[in-house]
Specification:
The complex is a heterodimer of chains A (about 120) and B (about 110). Chain A has about 120 residues and is an all-beta fold. Chain A has no helices and eleven strands. In chain A, a hairpin with a 2-residue loop joins strand 7 and strand 8. In chain B, strands 1, 3, 4, 8, 9 and 10 form a six-stranded mixed β-sheet that branches. Chain B has a four-stranded antiparallel β-sheet with strand order 2-7-6-5, with no helix packed on it. The chains are: A mainly beta (about 120), B mainly beta (about 110). The interface between A and B is medium-sized, with 26 and 23 residues.
């Protein structure tokens, strides 16, 4: 199994509080992604990174920020959590980006509940 | 970004072959077709991908139509552990995987 770890695995937080989710990889892959999965929507891209300090927005980036100061860590921050951000969050990694025909590896997910 | 279309659900009997179809008529000529699956309470996992010719690996086979507008994922002998949601995916313009709702495969003993 690819070395990808998400933390925490579960979190309950209150509306308006900041939350940071961590994705850690041991594969030295260049690309890292954050997705959210909600019933009826499948997985949707929030932000992605194509290198250290190189990030870009995805389809549903409003209310989220990311940082990547090291190859192995990609952090997703909810500056002020809202109930609409209750979801399951998945991190993924890819060596060369999926357009280069490489596969992506996904973490086990973080279930976030905002009350 | 190319859109893919799959049936919402399919059923199979254990140890029988399963053919999961996907339409991707707008996929570009240079983009690979990817298949992932998601078991309950887990993250998606890679199954197979291909460009033009048919592909085989230890998990499955991928048959791609000559015009590349459709493909079929073939599980040669379904097991109970193959019950999952199967996603047919084309890469997005940002180099990400664009997930649809996938096909929920049920396997009956």
């Amino acid at each position: 199994d690819a070395g990808i770890t998400q933390s925490p695995r579960h979190k309950v937080t209150e509306t308006g509080t900041p939350v940071t989710l961590r994705c850690h990889q041991t594969e030295n892959h260049r690309y890292m992604y954050w997705y959210r999965q909600d019933p009826g929507h499948g997985l949707r891209l929030i932000h992605y990174s194509y290198g250290v300090k190189d990030t870009d927005k995805g389809e549903v980036s409003d209310g989220y920020s990311v940082s990547r100061s090291k190859t192995e860590d990609f952090l997703l921050t909810l500056e002020s959590a809202t109930s609409s951000q209750t979801s399951v969050y998945f991190c993924a990694i890819s060596e060369s980006g999926v357009r280069a025909s490489t596969e992506a590896f996904f973490g086990q997910g973080t279930r976030l509940t905002v009350v | 970004d190319a859109k893919t279309t799959q049936p919402n659900s399919m059923e199979s009997n254990e140890e029988e072959p399963v053919h999961l179809p996907c339409n991707h008529s707008t996929i570009s000529g240079t983009d690979y077709i990817h298949w992932y699956r998601q078991l309950p309470s887990q993250g998606p996992e890679y199954v197979i991908h291909g460009l033009t010719s048919n592909v085989n690996n230890r998990m499955a086979s991928l048959a791609i139509a000559e015009d590349r507008k459709s493909s079929t994922l073939i599980l040669h002998r379904a097991t109970l552990r193959d019950a999952a949601v199967y996603y047919c995916i084309s890469p997005g313009s940002q180099g990400n995987l664009i997930f649809g709702k996938g096909t929920k495969l049920s396997v009956k003993p």
